[in-house]
Every structure is written in structure tokens, then in C-alpha cells.
Amino acid sequence: MDDSNARQFAEALAEHVGHAGQAAEHPLLDLTEVYFACAAAMRSLDRATGPLARAGRALAVVQPRPHVREALTNAGLPGVRVHATLASALHTLHALHPAQTPHPPHSPHPPADREPARAEPGDPA
Reading across the β-sheet that carries 114-116, which strands appear in turn? Predict the structure, then answer.
């Protein structure tokens, strides 16, 4: 995500988060193939996830590469939660709302591989 595609990203992300909210679903963003995240992308994430954070929810972000993970961590976005695997994201969503979330696939990774974009009090760094 760079300046050349930040606007498209912002529009698609806002639509995705909005649709998830209307459908009472949990938004999830797979960043597996993203190698770079510019400041405009971080602002887009902040705008799209601000309402989630105010509602006590978050956008599950899956498998960001090291540079993207660092950008997310530095941005400190309260509406973003980073997960090392899709299985851990699904496990966390299921634990929060068991009646609304399908069972996650079996994973050799325990749910401890969830990493918040911003450390919460009491969470390991």
C-alpha cells in the first residue's frame, strides 16, 4: 500500500468495514501479500477502524509482513488487532462472540500468537 493505491485501499476498506457492521459480522483484513504500508494507508485504517474502537471492537488484521507489522505497531491504532495466523484471528473472534462466529480450523498455534497493534495494559509486549 503506497500513495498510488492508498485511495483505492481506503475506499475498499471503508466499504468492507461498513458492510461487516451492517451484517453484524466481524471484519477481517488479510495483509499476507502486502509488503509496504505508507502513512496514507495508516490514516485510512485509522479512519475505517475508529468507529470499531469506539464500539469496543477491532479489525482483525492477519499475517502482516514485518515492515507492515512495524508500521501498524508504530501507528498505535486502537481499532486494529494483529494476528500471526488466520486461525488465531478466528479463534479470538469465536472466543469473543461464540454464537456468531464459526469454529476456527484446527491450528498448531495457540491463541497466544495474537499480537495487538497497540499493547493493551496487561498484555505481553
Answer: 28-30, 59-62, 80-83, 114-116
